[in-house]
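FIELD: query
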Amino acid sequence: MKFDPSKMKSLCLLRLSAIGDVCHAVAMVQAIQREYPELSITWIIGKVEYQLLQHLPGIKFVIFDKSQGWRSYGALRKALVGQKFDVLLHMQVALRATIASLMINARVRVGFDKARAKEGQWLVTNHAVEPLATPHVLDGFMGFAKAIGVTDLTPRWHIPVPQADTDFASQLIGDDKVLVICAAASKAERNWLADRYAAVADHAVSQGYRVMLCGGPTVLEKDLADAIQSHSQHMLDNQVGKTSLTQLLAVLKLAKRVLAPDTGPLHMAVTQGTAVIGLYAHSNPDRTGPYFYRQFTVSVYPQVIAAQVQGDVPWGKRAKGDQLMAMIDVAAVIEQFDHLEGVGIIGN
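FIELD: result
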């Protein structure tokens, strides 16, 4: 379906989750805003993700609360009643997003290309982005901006936080050189071992760093932080469960370095220009790694996936197994940590 993007007056963006993905989506939507500063933009987003992005300028948010089950679709329909958009950017491949898109009245409905438009997405769109064989998730998202005529696709981020949260982070960090460890991913199998996190933390302390543990309030995250502390030879600053998402973003901005598996705070740190050492075993860091810092990732994914898949590996194929992260050794992570100390990088 052909259309003239220059005539757009209103745009709806559908990307519900997760934290890392909405961080990528921010770079895309802000590229659109630079190209079309007068464009009215509505973003349909998950409840948790909204807590991070609620202060973005020039965007109206509509919260989709999946915890309400089927009622969430009726609530979305009610929130959008009477609204008609020139363009919908349908950026989530999930059945619930496909169903949610039916509540959105838009003439032009842009989805992924045929190879990536799964979970019925191709049934509810009438325009596709250009195919990309091996994109990073962020580059895949930028395809949506390109589809509506955006020419400057360089990722940039401006995610405002309240001044109180910036002050909170400044007081917490002070003048110290801080390594933030966000140890827990959403699934326990993607977490590194507590004693190995502790070994890297102890090395960082020996190099003049204060080590801060950060994360959410779940039992899994708190237990992992306690286990890391129990293995460490030094007292670590345990802030797990003690920060909001915007406070955490402010902390990540002021940190000197971040160590994390494939999890939301890893990508939050990238938006703040803070160098990240990512730990990967289950997913391909060329696809989901920290965008500007993939060269510092410690990954065993290539050997893991080669052992599980014969022949060509589909892009985005995840490796399976509960013990894969144990293949990452301490020495490899410390090597990257020390390497970061000797190179000039983006950010601080």
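FIELD: remark
The mean pLDDT is 96.
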